[in-house]
Design a protein that fits this description.
38% of the residues lie in helices and 15% in strands. By secondary structure, the protein is α/β, with parallel strands linked by helices. It binds 1,3-dihydroxyacetonephosphate.
């Protein structure tokens, strides 16, 4: 049975312009429906659109988030960087940290841990991404990889109620491939077990990301352990994004 408190997070990655924000009107309408009361929509556009997006949706029940942050907490001489203080000032409430596309560019578990701490310091809610590569899945070391990412990423963080985990198997990002429900359920349960061992709140949400689309959303949402989706490609098309939401909550 579908969870009645689902998160729908749109990760626009390096896409989007102000016209795309206009198209969020139809999503604002959905967010106002009575049956949507307990669900959440979060838009994560590029940094340059955060403030404009926030101004557009601030009177609605839609939230805005950034896609990354600098690990430093204070202002300083870091040309081209944006830290959590600057993100907070745009009105954003959420932030994606540890996405595999940033891990690929050099974000280690150590850096990710620093970024999470800096975001929490600014009272941003963190969407912490983890996931295994195809080669790691093939070697059957998925659990090992997930455990390392979670424990290192959360080192020294005692208050974790503002953290949401997003499980994104790297091999399923942008490929159209998704794990079977059996595999996904197993991995999500394993993540929950690790979180429990770290004494994380039982209320901590676990999202799934990777090729979520209007065709597979319903099947994925049947896994009651999934508390929502982190959606890349399909979130850029508001019709597809709405379809995913409708298929999931209906
Ligand atoms: P796709 O939905 O395009 O596979 O991207 C998933 C993702 O990386 C979301 O963060």
């Amino acid at each position: 049975m579908t969870n009645n408190n689902m998160y729908f997070v749109a990760n626009w990655k390096m896409h989007g312009n102000t016209n795309d924000i206009e198209r969020s009107k139809s999503i604002i309408k959905i967010s106002k429906l009575k049956k949507f009361k307990n669900h959440k929509i979060i838009y994560c556009p590029p940094y340059t659109l955060l403030k404009t997006f926030f101004d557009k949706v601030k009177k609605s029940r839609i939230f805005v988030g950034a896609q990354n942050t600098h690990p430093g907490t204070e202002f300083g001489p870091f040309t081209g960087s944006i830290n959590s203080k600057l993100i907070k000032a745009t009105g954003a409430k959420y932030i994606i940290i540890g996405h595999s596309e940033n891990r690929k560019l050099g974000d280690t578990n150590f850096i990710i841990n620093k970024k999470i701490k800096s975001a929490l310091k600014e009272k941003l809610k963190v969407i912490f991404c983890i996931g295994e590569k195809y080669s790691e899945r093939k070697k059957k070391i998925t659990n090992l990889v997930l455990k390392k990412q979670i424990t290192k990423g959360l080192i020294g963080i005692k208050k974790n109620e503002n953290i949401i985990i997003s499980y994104e198997p790297i091999w399923s990002i942008g490929t159209g491939l998704i794990p079977t429900n059996v595999e996904l359920k197993k991995n999500i349960n394993f993540i929950r077990k690790i979180l429990n061992s770290l004494k994380a709140s039982k209320k901590m949400k676990i999202l799934y990301g990777g090729s979520v689309n209007p065709v597979n959303a319903k099947q994925l949402a049947e896994i009651s352990e999934i508390n929502g989706f982190l959606i890349g490609g399909a979130s850029l098309n508001s019709k597809k994004f709405i379809d995913i939401i409708k298929k999931t909550i209906n």
